[in-house]
Design the sequence.
């Protein structure tokens, strides 16, 4: 038996609670992992609260991330006591996830825990930080350099936004952070933001083209915010889109793309191939300031995660939440 959050949906309704789970219920997989740490992402909040159609089968253990140690493996790349990390692959949606003490998964979904990080630090990064790195890499591969101008980061107080600011600042970029929480301005500046703007400047319907300002954008918000970010991006600039906190719609026009040559990169972290994941984690180990990571991380127990999921969706959580699944 092991402890985990289990989500059920039946005639009694939709509910998520911590309970004891029999190991015999674990899904198929060739690697069994003793989980040490997990985390809460926006998608986990939607899954636990039922406010988004994230969970595709029931019962389900949520949690799109985990870090831990292999207990047993029939996969050729992994053996007992290997330290591993998992992000995405539908875990916590269609396959039991990381908000539990034990997981059984496909070995192809795992990556080795970088030596630079503890398992707790890897979950402080989590899918949010890994996605932020993919966004930064997209801007770099586009050819953007610090001297090209400002980089806008939307949803700046969230997990993706916080890590993106820290990464971009360390790489020498001037970062403008968009947030709905003006009280967090000093926190965002400590991460490396040089200017803070109110999210309302971008959240309402705007013009097809706005004054050119951003050399690049990391957007975790979507909807009008993404449309306005594209409208204000400089000639031949780039926008990396990875989230939908404001909405899945994209009320824009082709104007930024055909008149200014703006490139919109879609960032998918869930099904990214292994080579992309390994490169991203290697870059995180090299370019992420651990001290800044610690400053945006708060630890909670497994039993606190259900309540915290609701707070996350309400925008009450700053930075990253790591979950100690063993307490």
Sequence:
């Amino acid at each position: 038996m092991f402890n985990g959050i289990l989500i059920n949906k039946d005639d009694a309704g939709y509910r998520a609670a911590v309970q004891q789970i029999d190991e015999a219920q674990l899904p198929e997989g060739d690697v069994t992992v003793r989980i040490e740490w997990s985390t809460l992402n926006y998608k986990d909040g939607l899954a636990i609260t039922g406010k988004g159609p994230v969970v595709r089968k029931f019962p389900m253990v949520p949690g799109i991330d985990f870090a831990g140690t292999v207990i047993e493996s029939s996969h050729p790349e992994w053996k007992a006591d290997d330290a591993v990390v998992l992000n995405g692959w539908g875990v916590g949606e269609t396959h039991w996830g990381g908000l539990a003490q034990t997981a059984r998964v496909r070995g192809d979904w795992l990556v080795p825990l970088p030596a630079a990080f503890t398992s707790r630090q890897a979950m402080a990064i989590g899918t949010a930080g890994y996605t932020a790195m993919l966004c930064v890499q997209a801007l770099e591969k586009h050819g953007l350099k610090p001297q090209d101008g400002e980089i806008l980061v939307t949803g700046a107080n969230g997990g993706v936004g916080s890590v993106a600011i820290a990464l971009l600042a360390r790489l020498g970029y001037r970062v403008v952070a968009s947030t709905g929480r003006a009280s967090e301005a000093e926190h965002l500046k400590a991460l490396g933001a040089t200017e803070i703007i109110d999210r309302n400047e971008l959240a309402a319907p705007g013009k097809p083209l706005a004054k050119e300002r951003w050399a690049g954008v990391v957007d975790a918000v979507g909807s009008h915010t993404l449309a306005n970010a594209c409208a204000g991006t400089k000639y031949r600039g780039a926008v990396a889109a990875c989230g939908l906190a404001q909405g899945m719609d994209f009320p824009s026009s082709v104007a930024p793309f055909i008149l200014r040559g703006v490139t919109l990169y879609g960032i998918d972290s869930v099904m990214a191939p292994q080579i992309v994941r390994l490169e991203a984690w290697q870059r995180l180990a090299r370019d992420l300031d651990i001290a800044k990571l610690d400053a945006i991380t708060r630890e909670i127990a497994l039993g606190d995660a259900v309540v915290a999921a609701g707070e996350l969706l309400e925008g009450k959580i700053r930075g990253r939440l790591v979950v100690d699944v063993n307490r």
Notes: The chain has two domains: 2-113+296-324, 126-266. The radius of gyration is 20 Å. The mean pLDDT is 96.
